[in-house]
Design goal:
The chain has about 90 residues and is mainly α. About 55% of the residues lie in helices and about 0% in strands.
Length: about 90
C-alpha cells in the first residue's frame, strides 16, 4: 500500500503534480465576469483538454502517437505562418 502524506490543503502530492495557482479578482461583485475570465485562463492553460484526455485511460503508445501528431500540426502551422509573413 502506498501512503502519500497530506500536503497543502490536505491533498496529497500526487494530485498537485502540475498544478499552477490561478487567481481571479472579483470586481464590484461581478461574479459572471470573473467566471468568464477564469474559464478563459483555464482554456489558455489547457485544463479542459487535460480533463478530457484523462476521462479514460490512454495507452502509452497512443499517447506517443497523439503527441507526435500534435507536434506535426504545430510545426506545419508555424511554417504556414512563416510562409505568409516572410514568403519562404
Amino acid at each position: 500500500m502506498i501512503h502519500n502524506a497530506p500536503t497543502q490543503n490536505g491533498l496529497s502530492a500526487i494530485f498537485r503534480r502540475d498544478v499552477k495557482d490561478v487567481y481571479v479578482t472579483v470586481r464590484d461583485n461581478n461574479v459572471d465576469q470573473a467566471l468568464r475570465v477564469l474559464k478563459k485562463k483555464m482554456q489558455r492553460e489547457g485544463v479542459f483538454r487535460e480533463m478530457k484526455n484523462r476521462r479514460s485511460y490512454e495507452k502509452p503508445s497512443e499517447r506517443r502517437a497523439r503527441e507526435a501528431a500534435e507536434s506535426t500540426r504545430r510545426v506545419r502551422k508555424l511554417m504556414r505562418k512563416r510562409l505568409e509573413r516572410e514568403g519562404y
